[in-house]
Design goal:
The chain is an all-alpha fold and 138 residues long. It has one domain: Orthogonal Bundle (Cytochrome Bc1 Complex, Chain D, domain 2). It contains 6 helices and no strands. About 12% of the residues have low confidence. It binds heme C (HEC). Heme C (HEC) binds next to helix 3, helix 4 and helix 6.
Length: 138
């Protein structure tokens, strides 16, 4: 009886760790989320938005030939380099993210105007997945 109970506890614990695994960043799922970004972005060319190939690890505002908003440009000058972690935060509210970055850097005077990226992604899991997908773009 006790044995059977322990077995059930073990199975429940295993199922628990599986569901934790599902919240990890999933680039394959991120590729599907990226369809929403493709209205404005491609990996290899500028469209409404800058080319995103190699964006993870790149200083913001530096896609060749793309004209960024003054706000986005200022964040790059202040040292914003994209990582999977900060893209997850940025996508929730790009405008607020860039302004907070500049304010935290002591450049509140430059935290004005708005970014040209008018899109927000509310779902945190989708943000994590698409950030993992961005890291695969060359
Ligand atoms: C409606 C068009 C639009 C959509 C949809 C959109 N973006 Fe953007 N994105 C832009 C524009 C325009 C910029 C340039 C921002 C600026 O200059 O202020 C940008 C900038 C960015 C940057 C910064 C790039 C750099 O070179 O520093 C990232 C990262 C980004 N977008 C990711 C995404 C992702 C991921 C999605 C989908 C989840 C997405 N965007 C959806 C228009 C869009």
């Amino acid at each position: 009886m006790v044995r059977k109970f322990l077995a059930i506890v073990t199975i429940t614990a295993a199922a628990g760790s599986l569901s934790t695994g599902a919240s990890a960043q999933d680039a394959a799922k991120g590729e599907a989320v990226f369809k929403q970004c493709q209205t404005c972005h491609r990996a290899d060319k500028n469209m409404v938005g800058p080319a995103l190939g190699g964006v993870i690890g790149r200083k913001t505002g530096t896609a060749a030939g793309f004209t960024y908003s003054p706000l986005n440009h200022a964040a790059g000058e202040a040292g914003l380099v994209w990582s999977q972690a900060n893209v997850v935060e940025y996508l929730a509210d790009p405008n607020a993210y860039l302004k907070k970055f500049l304010t935290d850097k002591g450049q509140a005077d430059k935290a004005t105007g708005s970014t040209k990226m008018t899109f927000k992604l509310a779902n945190e899991q989708q943000r994590k997945d698409v950030a993992a997908y961005l890291a695969t773009l060359k």
